[in-house]
Amino acid sequence: MAGGIAGGRDVDALILAAIGAGVGYVGGALIGSALKIETFAGVVKIQIMEKTENPVVGVITSNLKQGTSTTIKTEQAITTNYQTYRTKLAVTATQTNLKKEIAAKEVVDKTSVLIANFF
């Protein structure tokens, strides 16, 4: 195409090709720098305690480490009228040129819906 525009001379075709490549490179670089994909995330740990008719028996365990060789393990038996459930939720918002304020609202809204779906 460049050769046809330049009238068929090889030198002119090469010059036009170089100019076209340069314009494409600079234009692509400008557009690429203007667009940025942003990702924001929220992680929530949830503990739900459900009251039960019968006692729930459990053990609280602690594994303590100090340095590379000392380990202490302690256990304590417990009895309660609550069954405990734990989970972790992760929500991400990814979009081109996403603003932090908008992302925070989306993460909170989606996390709220996920928590509400437990009940």
Automatic annotation (TrEMBL):
Transmembrane segments: 13-35
Pfam family, one: TraT
Protein name in the entry: Uncharacterized protein
InterPro entries named in the record: TraT_complement-R
Keyword line: Lipoprotein, Membrane, Palmitate, Signal, Transmembrane, Transmembrane helix
Any GO CC annotation of this UniProt entry: cell outer membrane
Record lineage: Bacteria, Pseudomonadati, Thermodesulfobacteriota, Thermodesulfobacteria, Thermodesulfobacteriales
Topology of the protein relative to the lipid bilayer: Lipid-anchor
Domain of life (superkingdom): Bacteria
Subcellular location: Cell outer membrane
